[in-house]
Amino acid sequence: METLKAVYINEMFKISKKKKIAISLVFSFLSLIVGAIVVYYLNNFAGIRITGSSDFSIMVLTVLSYTLFPLFTAFICIDMFAGEFADSTIKLTLTGLAPRFKVFLGKILAIATSIMANLIVVMILSLVVSIFIDGSVSNLVKIVLAYIMEFFPQLIFALVVVFLSNISKGTTSAFMLSILVFLVFNGLGMIFPNFKSFLFTSTFDWYTLILGGYINFSKILRVFLILLGYGIMLITASYYFFEKRDI
């Protein structure tokens, strides 16, 4: 455990030093500000009420879950795998005392922590903006649960990018493949709606299952099991290629 902890701390430190991550966070913050200005103007001056105090945080989650969150996730994963293999900095980690599995697991845990941290920051900022817009926040529990639920599909997308990064020769190819897979899966969901529920991209908005008056727990469990299946397969496949990759 001490070895895994050391690897995890090291990976978190490296993530904190990446400029792309800071840029992604800035864009998330700016998108919140722009959204707040638009909503405030429409609600108070244009006479068009497009969102309430509880809906703004959900509206932000809906928009960012298909845009900046996946981009943020892709940047982290590609830099931590394809990027480190491309510039050979991963040699310092793999030639140390930690076995490859713990290095791999430490990276995955660091990625998961970063995704959750990003969601928490955006949620807190959106709640603050909600108070600014309407003076209060309702349905706080559902908002918190929605952001927690969003963590799981974003983590699955991260594992997809990790897998692609481990079979790619460079950061550019890994990034392009990640975009292609994201677009293809979304496209398949529109072309074949009957199979949409089996595509991980269709789960990006599964938090909507708890927002209505009736909560379908069986459907929530079904989606969770699908995500769990994706996670097991992707971790297994990603580690296989990570283990076989030469440095």
TrEMBL record:
<feature type="transmembrane region" description="Helical">
    <location>
        <begin position="21"/>
        <end position="43"/>
    </location>
</feature>
<feature type="transmembrane region" description="Helical">
    <location>
        <begin position="145"/>
        <end position="167"/>
    </location>
</feature>
<feature type="transmembrane region" description="Helical">
    <location>
        <begin position="224"/>
        <end position="242"/>
    </location>
</feature>
<protein>
    <submittedName>
        <fullName>ABC-2 type transport system permease protein</fullName>
    </submittedName>
</protein>
<dbReference type="Pfam" id="PF12730">
    <property type="entry name" value="ABC2_membrane_4"/>
</dbReference>
<feature type="transmembrane region" description="Helical">
    <location>
        <begin position="174"/>
        <end position="192"/>
    </location>
</feature>
<keyword id="KW-0472">Membrane</keyword>
<dbReference type="GO" id="GO:0005886">
    <property type="term" value="C:plasma membrane"/>
</dbReference>
<feature type="transmembrane region" description="Helical">
    <location>
        <begin position="63"/>
        <end position="83"/>
    </location>
</feature>
<feature type="transmembrane region" description="Helical">
    <location>
        <begin position="104"/>
        <end position="133"/>
    </location>
</feature>
<keyword id="KW-0812">Transmembrane</keyword>
<dbReference type="GO" id="GO:0140359">
    <property type="term" value="F:ABC-type transporter activity"/>
</dbReference>
<keyword id="KW-1133">Transmembrane helix</keyword>
